[in-house]
Amino acid sequence: MTDATYERGVQIRQEIFGKELTDAHLANADEFNSLIQDLVTRYCFGEVWGRELLSRKTRSMITIAMLAAQGRAPEIKMHVRGALANGVSKEEIGEVFLHAAIYAGVPAGVGGFRCASEVFAEAAGGAGGPS
Q1: By residue range, what is the domain housing residue 104?
Q2: 103 neighbors 69 (Cβ within 8 angstroms)
């Protein structure tokens, strides 16, 4: 079911992750996983990312820090790409993962750096950096 919140969520996802990737995730949703795609689109992006008190840049930095703390590598990579699209610099991403290392543990920070290095290498057309 689509409504204004859902449509805003689709728009925000497209702006952060690109139209092609967002549309593919939504188009590939089947009867089973359409439930989570709807929840992510509607509540994560339409409701929370759509709020205006925090900038998307700030939300991106918070998100990659929390994902690093949880050790969620695939999501870290996706959100590092999104952070870059939201204006977070490579240097700021490094600072976020240093901060995560102090508050969430060195392995979390190392994992964040590893994931970000892979994203940066992909963007540059090369292999991932040291871990």
Answers
A1: 56-124
A2: yes
Torsion from C-alpha of 115, 17, 25, 5, nearest 10 degrees: 130
**120 in Cβ contact with 76 (< 8 Å):** no
pLDDT at 127: 54
Count of structural domains, the chain: 2
CB of 100 within 8 A of CB of 112?
yes
The mean pLDDT value for 39-66 works out to 97
Backbone phi and psi for residue 21, each to the nearest 5 degrees, phi listed first? -65, -45
Q: What are phi and psi of 29, to 5 degrees?
A: -70, 125
pTM: 0.89
Pairwise CA distance, residues 7 & 50, whole Å: 11
Question: How confident is the model at residue 126, as a pLDDT?
Answer: 62
Q: 102 lies in a domain?
A: yes
